[in-house]
Amino acid sequence: MAKYFDVHPENPQRRTISNVADSIRSGALVAYPTDSCYALGCQLGNRDGLSRIRSIRNLDDRHHFTLVCQDFAQLGQFVHVDNDVFRAIKAATPGSYTFILPATKEVPRQLLHPKKKTVGVRIPDHVVAQALLADLGEPLLSSTLLLPDEEEPLTQGWEIKERLDHAVDAVVDSGDCGTEPTTVIDFSSGEAEVVRRGAGDTARFE
Question: Where is the YrdC-like domain (predicted)?
């Protein structure tokens, strides 16, 4: 059964956040809120967590996983960013965007797109997600909590607990965070390509 953590959306309880972070360090797969719907997350090197995300979402090896980062300094350790791309991404973060970029050697091979050697990165504008990332001190390997054959992600913590009780180890509930996933911008060629229109405004990248 999954542990259930009820977290205040504006003033997350420090002890509760620390408990969630400790669970992640111990290998847990968690469902947690972001600024654009709930996500599944685990520690970067957690192979079991990665395979469980693939299983829950029925993903193939071409799926771009996302490293959810606390800030730009952390993001820069895992992807190559030139000056023009840096400015474009910096202006849009934190926010509801995922950026696809060439990965550095810090990213485990199994997370990379098999042909492009790219990975998704994002910096969420969400108090609870930021508190969790600050406690962890490292990115969360993540994917949108969208179940196979369903058009919208799950938005209620209690429903996630009910439906994924034996598939995840913990659910972090801080209330509804919407159903619209991030806008995905592919910068792997050096130019912005809108891959998915979502919660983030695409106008600045078109």
Answer: 14-200
